[in-house]
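Hello forum,

I keep getting stuck at the same step: I have a sequence, I want structure tokens, and every attempt I make locally crashes halfway through. Rather than fight my setup again tonight, could one of you with a working pipeline run this one for me? It's a single chain of 300 residues.
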Amino acid sequence: MPTVRQLEYFLAVAELRHFGRAAQSCNISQPTLSHQLRALEDRLGTTLIDRASQGIELTPVGREIAERARRVLREIRDIRAVAARARKQPSGIVRLGITPTLGPYLLPALIGALNAEQSDLRFYIREGIPAEQARDLVSGRIDLMVGPGPVIGEDLEVLPLFDEPMSVVASQSHHLAGHSHIDRSDLAGERFLTMDPRHHYHQQVQRACAELGAEMLLDYEGTSLDSIHQMVGSGVGLAILPELYLRSEVGGDALVVRLPVTNWQCSRSIVAAWRAKSASADDYHTLAERIRDEAGKLLA
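Reply #2:
Ran it on my machine without issues. Output:
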């Protein structure tokens, strides 16, 4: 039978499509990786990787076995978590997926608080597109994800955490800056910056522009909230920025001013999600509640 290590090595190659990077991610040498993959194929009596192609491609049976191997390794992690809980010990590393429009502005305070309470708990943090991270959650690549709702996936448990206000911001030299009251109609025709269309943030800005009769600047998509902040500060356009970003030391509002729109509001709903059948589901629920509590303090 294949060993757990061999399945882990095979999945690393299947996901990274590069022998060198796969070996590095598994903390082994490339010759060791290649040897173990050959041994796995010998044990199974079939070829899993098409080595004759230009890049690394899985054979048809290799793709099917990769899907089954993901499920096997997910179950093995759950078995380990059950055993750890039975020993009343922390399960160690939580693989946390979070959107880059939230993580840098929420996690520092959260991780600092958790380190003081549970010093043995560690986080492997992966930032990414929420829709892609939902798929990673279902497949077992991450344990818990936090981001804008809705989160959709098979056998997921979703817990609403908080609603985060968002504000329209402009450069200090913008013609609306300094006004004590701004009607939503004043924003008609204004140009708003956004991010890559795969981000939930892009979709939210798109809806806001439709409501306000404004325009999205698709030629100047930011790669992060910081790049949007800087472009707004330089006068390229307006933006809608989340409250945690505006309050954070990492982000902030040094280059921009908030526009007090009196008859229009914007917010985003932040949720946590995990696999409902995970052996650590109760732990993830508790951790999600802790995230909700810490966010509440930051937004108070």
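The first helix runs from residue 4 to 16. If your local run keeps crashing, start a new thread with the error log.
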